[in-house]
Amino acid sequence: MKESYNDNLFDRLFIWLFSRKMAIAIGTGTVKSGYDGFVDLSQQIVRGRNAAQQQEVVSVVLRSLVPAPVLKLIRTFFSPTQVVCELNAWFATVLFEWLVGPCEVRAVDVTDESGRPRSQRSGVHIKKCRYLEQSGCVGMCINMCKLPTQSFFTQEFGIPLTMTPNFEDLSCEMAFGQLPPPLETEAAYHQPCLIGQCVTAAAVPACPKVRE
Q1: For residues 147 and 180, what is the distance between their CA atoms, to the nearest angstrom?
Q2: What is the pTM of this model?
Q3: How far apart are CA 164 and CA 191, in angstroms?
């Protein structure tokens, strides 16, 4: 059963802000409102663009939300220590529930600068991703969320992030402080389209939008 959401004023503000930035980035809007409009704009970004182009549009949107001087200050003064990573995990549960649905901080094992494993509470468990459920698209999950978000935190903020979606129950694990591996080495790269959600689900062994 599809989850229902009652967006509060804070949620609606963030949905409006992100939707506005997306519309500016692609030069068009949407007749839909609220979260439906946000997903519709995402689908417009996907149409006519390959995977790399989709990711670049999202990167432009994310960079437009944080001024360049702020990004530089964060990279300069906030190295990815355990405390910084744990704070980022907490902020993620507060700021992005409107986007992904209910989530909670969890302990995760990450590899530190010396290559040793370290346990810290810098993980975020997304119980059932709102974006993945509503879009119903593996490619949108990877190209519009996972890869550009990982890249933004890792490269722009200087705080490594790995996201691991579960396409069985639509949950997702985020690990701040963990460098993301190459997509080709992850299960998500070989993930078929979602049965009952995508017309190509029975025709191809893996989502073509991820590889195009």
Answers
A1: 9
A2: 0.91
A3: 12
Distance CA 180, CA 197 (A): 28
Compute the Cα dihedral for 193, 199, 205, 208 and give only its sign.
Answer: negative
> Measuring CA to CA, which residue among 127, 128, 124, 90 is closest to residue 108?
124
Does residue 98 lie within any of the structural domains?
A: yes
Give the count of domains, the chain: 1
Half-sphere exposure of 181 (CA within 13 A, CB side): 9
Query: Where in the sequence is the domain holding 65, given as residue range(s)?
Result: 9-211
Distance CA 49, CA 104 (A): 33
Residue range 16-75, pLDDT digits in tens = 999 999 999 999 999 999 999 999 999 999 999 999 999 999 999 999 998 888 888 888
Query: What mean pLDDT comes out for the span 142-165?
Result: 96
Q: Where are the alpha helices (DSSP H) in the chain?
A: 9-26, 34-46, 51-65, 68-77, 82-95, 97-100, 130-135, 138-141, 147-151, 208-211
